[in-house]
Amino acid sequence: MATVVLVTLNLRPFLTAVGPITPVLQEQTGMSLTTISWLTLLPMALMGISTWLAPSAQRYLGARLTLLIALAGIAFGNALRLVSIDATLLIATAAVCGVSVALVQGVLPGLIKQRNPKHVASIMGVFSAALMLGGALGAQFTPLAMQWGTDWREALALWALPVFPVMVLVAVVVRGEGFVTRERGAGNSVGASGLAMSGGSVWLLRRKRTWLLMVMLGLVNGGYASMVAWVPPHYQTLGWSATRTGTLIAVISIAQALAALILPFFARRNLDRRPWLWFTAVCQVLGFFMLANWPLVWPLMIGIVLGIGLGGFFALIMVVGLDHLHDPVQAGILSAVMQGGGYLLTAISPWLVAALQEASGGFSAGWWWQMAASCLVVIFVFWLDPNRYARVMGVVNH
Length: 398
Description:
The protein has 398 residues and is an all-alpha fold.
């Protein structure tokens, strides 16, 4: 459990560190908002593409080596920001981090179900909470590091440092006993599902349910991506400082983490997670509505409501994806496929919000778009009846 948390804490700071210092980036590099959106758009898109590669990487390299390579990529991508002299190199660092994060996110959910099949909801809540807490750390400490005397490159590159001790931990803890999934014969827990690992994604892509899960994850994650990218610049146009906007993102991220941790715990006793999914989706609708119309009226409350909606829904939809299939390897592949398509869709949102801002002169139009996307998610939740999982997936344990 500790390993899962410490690995996951390193997956979001590279994204959330950018938002609070956006005005500095514009001043120092001459980047427009649309160009800066690529620091979120590109890694999200690459997370989508690369997550589909995670099952194959896990099969041929094993979980430990896959995780170590991915963590090394995150450290390298962050460290490279120390010498990023222009927009092109800065965007390239985001791409390196995005591919690396995708490999981790594609491997961990299946491992969680494999090792803890009776506690998937609770542990996925911990995984999701750690993602959000990592985001809070990136948003809060990057502008603080600049206040303490670092320049923007050094503040961004600092996030390479916490990755190295985690790499040592993974090398020691993640071994063959249920973690490493390299095929070793019939006795291996994953060997019996080798066919699923090698070709499982093809049959999954023929299922409408796989595409529904992709769309739902993509729309909600799009709200998260837009929030971390554009809430700080939005509030800075309203007179807030970089540190204060970083604190707001940290509050949102902590609310996300608590919701991701607590709601799956409450939802664990009933396979029908829809009441909780509706609750979190409605929180998103309310949060984006307030952000579009009255951002300065109780901004912390807006952040908390939005955080509960985004964090809780992400954790629950990840659990729902794993609920659809009993076999942990198949469920892990479904999770990877779902995240792959979802993150590709996610990548559109921060760019769209930036384009709407430049066209309209304000961020409200972008928040209206995110509210509409959340309304769609409310409708889509109706289809997630657990009594129909086997039928819609068309399998009898595949």
